[in-house]
Specification:
The chain has helices at about 40-55, 60-75, 80-85, 95-105; strands at about 5, 10-15, 25, 115, 130-135. With about 140 residues, the chain is of the alpha+beta class.
Length: about 140
């Protein structure tokens, strides 16, 4: 979406950045400018270039793979050192429901009551009891 604007007798091109979508004046030194100079937009431009290059240039892919392999050979203890500096977080609770109950206990007061709700069918038979916690909003 390039448009032209005339200032001081010179034609100024404008464009909309592909990443942030802001309308901007194009840099006359950059032919077919598509990204602005913001750091996030430049990172997006580089990522798009790399994705395109990896998809269309098998020589570049091979060179990239060999460079990574060489770096790994020159830094054999990198991951061991990284794991030492960045230990794994503790495992998540085995039952997510338990985690929710534990987390909410700090917000509950002592006046809460746990009750069983037992619906009874018209013929007097109990069906599917559920447990609920009754929390009063105010003390009477």
């Amino acid at each position: 979406m390039a448009t032209n604007d005339v200032r001081d007798g010179k034609t100024m091109k404008s464009f909309r950045c592909k990443h942030c979508h802001n309308p901007l004046q194009a840099d006359p030194r950059v032919k077919d400018q598509q990204f602005c100079s913001a750091d996030d937009c430049q990172a997006a431009r580089k990522k798009a270039w790399l994705r395109e290059k990896m998809a269309t240039d098998p020589d570049y892919v091979e060179t990239h793979r060999l460079a990574q392999k060489k770096w790994q050979e020159n830094h054999p203890d990198y991951w061991r050192s990284y794991r030492k500096k960045h230990p794994k977080p503790p495992p998540a609770a085995s039952d997510p429901q338990d985690a929710k109950i534990d987390a909410i206990r700090t917000y509950l007061n002592d006046s809460s009551i746990i009750c069983d709700l037992v619906p009874i069918s018209p013929d007097g038979v109990k069906i599917d009891a559920i447990q609920v916690k009754i929390i009063p909003f105010s003390r009477l």
